Each structure stands twice: as C-alpha cells, then as structure tokens.
Recover the amino acids of this structure.
DNA sequence: CGCGAGCTTGAACATTATCAAGGCAAGTGG
DNA sequence: CCACTTGCCTTGATAATGTTCAAGCTCGCG
C-alpha cells in the first residue's frame, strides 16, 4: 500500500485522521489542526513498534496493516492480547499517567502508523468533549472485547476456544467464497496457540480433527476455509467439557 | 453501614458522589448538581442488581459493599469477570449505545448503590471535559486489569493462577497481622473456581497443598492467612507447567 | 530441485475434571 | 443445650484432556 498518498495529496495527514473513528466527528478545520500534530512511520513485518515496559508518550494509530500486542512470561511464552488493524489505536493507557507500555507490539506485515504526542491529545480532549466521548466509547468496546476473550479463556473448552477464534477471524480476516468463508490467517499455529493459551501441537490436532469432521478445510497453512459455519458456532458456544 | 448518613446530613448525595474518583475534580456547586440526579438503592446479599442481557440506562456506583459481575454459559457455569467494591462504577458500556448489560451483577453482601441516568451523565461529560478524562483514566485502568487477568488465565499454570488470585485478594481484602496478611475471602471456593476457570475441587486441593507447604493457613473457610508471601509471589510468576 | 521453517502426528506422561463419599460448621427447632 | 439439618468444603479414585518430547512431513522459497 502506498505511503499515505492521500495525505500527500491533501497536504497533510487529514486523511489519516479521518480513518480513525475517534476523530470522525471533527470538521475539516479541526481535522487539519489535529493532522498537523501527527508523525508518520513505517514498519516492516517483524519490527517491534514498542516493547513492554518502555515509556510511551504517544497515541499510535494504525493507518495501514496489522500488529499483534502481547506480553511475555519469564519462560519466554507470549500471551497475545490483541490483534490491531487499520483504524485501531493503541497506547491509550499512557496518555494520562506515566505508565509504561503494558505489552509489546509487533508488526505482522508492513505497517504505517500515525503517532500523536500525549500533550496534543490531552489538549484536544479538553477542547473537544466529543472526542472524549468517542474515546470512551472505543474503550468501552475494547473492554467488551476483552470480557469476551476472558470468558472464552475461562470457561470454554479448548475446542470451543478454537471455534470461537475461527468465528472471530472469519469476521475480521475472512472473505466470502462460494464454498463458505475463506480466512487469511494473521498468525502462525504458534501464534494462535499463544492467543488461546495452549500449545501449537494442540492447535494442529484440533484443526486436523475439524478438517476430518468436514467443518473446515485448510488451504496451505496460511488459509482456512470454513465449510460448516453452523457446527462451528455450536462448538463455540459449547460449555466446558460437554 | 448506615444508609448514607452523610448524604442525609448534607441534604443530598454529595458525599456519595465525592467517593467516586471520577467526580473528584468537581467543586461543591457542581457536586451538588451532580448529586441531585442520583437515585439510591439498597440490596441484600444474593440480590441481583441486573441481569446479563437486560437493557440498562444508568451508570451505577457502588457506594457501600461489594458485588460480583459474571457471565453464564449454556451449561450454567459462570465466569466471574470482576469484583467491584466501594467507589467502583459499572454500566459504562451502556452509556452511549443501546447495548444491553454484558454481565449479571450480584450483591455479595449488603450493598448501597447510587444510580445515574444515562442522559444526565452524557450531559455532564459534555459540560465537564475533566470528568470525561477521568472516566477515560478509569476505563484504562480497568483495561489494564483485564489484560492482567487475561494473561493470567492464558499463560499461568493453575498453581500460578491461584497464587496470583491470593496476591490480588491480599491487596484488596487483606489486613496486616503479626503473622502475615489475613484475607477475608469475598467468595466461596466455588466462586474462586469460577473466577479462575477451574473446579471447586481443584481449588480445595491446591489450597490444601499450599497449607501443607506452610505458605498459607486457612482460618475457618472464609479467611486465609498468608504466611509466606515470597513463595506465593514466586508461584504467581511461575510459567506454564515448568 | 533441495533446503528449512513451520506444521503434523505419535506415545508416554502430567494434570485436571468428574463422580462419589464423607466431614465440618453454622443455624434451627425441640 | 443438644440432636438435626443444610450448605459448603475436603478427599479419594478414575477417566478425560492437554502437554511434552521426538520424529517425520509439507509447503514455499531460493
């Protein structure tokens, strides 16, 4: 994807800003004011945007691409907390207090970010309560999502977790094809395992079983085709061990 | 605890409001304005404040007591998402969109709440950006807490989860005594199990083992004395199955 | 075509859930 | 004041499930 061609055309980062739901309510003048405070940056796949524990003084908006946010345990395992995509923002915890980043963020592909200093954002909030409200809405959504994940990890059987993950991926990374929904996987098996808190072997085994059962079909190792959405949904709602 | 004696004394719910961090920045006049929009209510242990799926048009502040918030699975298991205490608020997801409650909330003891209609709160946010910023801070904190829990459920061994839970309880429900920290447990074994996504039997067994190891001592069934905080901390940071 | 990373599969092992029985403690009614 | 009852907690035995370790395979790429 081009390096924010639209921004270049419009003589700033207005287009960039427009993409972010939080700023949707602004008029053109305000928008370009906001845009003037933005710094853009590009990362390649595997690049670290920032590390858990680092001080962070900016709000970062994903302009293009996707990233994973994770925490690392003493033994090197990682727990993936989020997959962020175009339009998502991160770093909001660090906007008010001097907290350090609570997770590491890594690019899953080529990523363009728009960063925003803490001071600019705070000033903006005080001037535009509407943005504050939008921000609260976004945070509420994120909380709802976390609560879902939490319930999933806590009470769903492993089969259920995988099914729920596939349903989620289908919505976010899937395209509809004649036979069902084709998912372009954002993560490796190990990544999926790290998201679900299980091992990569278990992911392999469960997916194999699903394929044998005719629920999905793997296409290479980076794509999965959902054939039987109904069964998947049932499995996702399944309780813990029958 | 008395039914908001202070509020009665001050001729309103100003005292009530003062307790909530979000409103801390208001001056007296604003405070009493806010207070005039509040409705108070009392619940007994076991009472349901609201049910998952119900429409909810208010922000609810816990004035006195504690509650648990949980979701139920098709088979009747519950996953406890939060324990809220004095000063915490809930229902923020419902302030902007017409979402229904995403969890059930139940009183763990006698609870007094202060409720706030959605409209009043929205108006307040638009008038007082400071409150909006405070709200964003609170939400950020909650997100940080959820991320912690998530990591805990995802990557920590069961022993680690229990240790982490005890550490958390120690901070929130513990008092320092000569021998260590005495925790007044807010939940039964089953409740703890529902918070950690395991069974009550496993909780019993793990606690017994910890007691045999001299790490804790159970005092009746509703209190636990932490004797060896060091070991507990180590266990909490433990990785998944060594 | 060959190489290597990532994926799959198998077998033994460890852990937790389930099912079942018994114990303890607090509250009740005689 | 004591037996009784009820709810919760503990413990044991067995079965289900996931992890670990190890080996082989596949896909995608140079």
């Amino acid at each position: 994807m081009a390096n924010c061609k639209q921004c270049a055309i419009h003589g700033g980062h207005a287009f960039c800003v427009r993409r972010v739901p939080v700023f949707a309510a602004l008029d053109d003048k305000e928008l370009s004011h906001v845009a003037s405070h933005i710094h853009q940056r590009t990362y390649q796949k595997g690049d670290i945007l920032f590390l858990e524990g680092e001080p962070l003084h900016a709000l970062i908006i994903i302009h293009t691409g996707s990233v994973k946010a994770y925490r690392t345990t003493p033994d090197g395992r990682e727990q993936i907390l989020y997959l962020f995509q175009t339009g998502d923002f991160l770093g909001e915890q660090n906007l008010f207090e001097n907290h350090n980043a609570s997770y590491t963020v890594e690019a899953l592909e080529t990523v363009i970010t728009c960063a925003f200093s803490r001071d600019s954002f705070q000033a903006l909030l005080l001037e535009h309560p509407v943005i504050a409200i939008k921000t609260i809405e976004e945070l509420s959504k994120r909380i709802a999502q976390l609560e879902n994940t939490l319930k999933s990890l806590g009470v769903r059987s492993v089969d259920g977790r995988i099914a729920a993950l596939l349903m989620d991926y289908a919505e976010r990374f899937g395209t509809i094809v004649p036979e069902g929904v084709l998912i372009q996987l954002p993560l490796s098996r190990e990544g999926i395992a790290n998201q679900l808190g299980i091992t990569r072997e278990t992911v392999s085994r469960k997916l194999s079983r699903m394929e044998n059962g005719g629920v999905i079909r793997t296409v290479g190792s980076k794509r999965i085709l959902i054939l039987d959405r109904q069964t998947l949904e049932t499995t996702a709602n399944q309780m813990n061990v029958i």
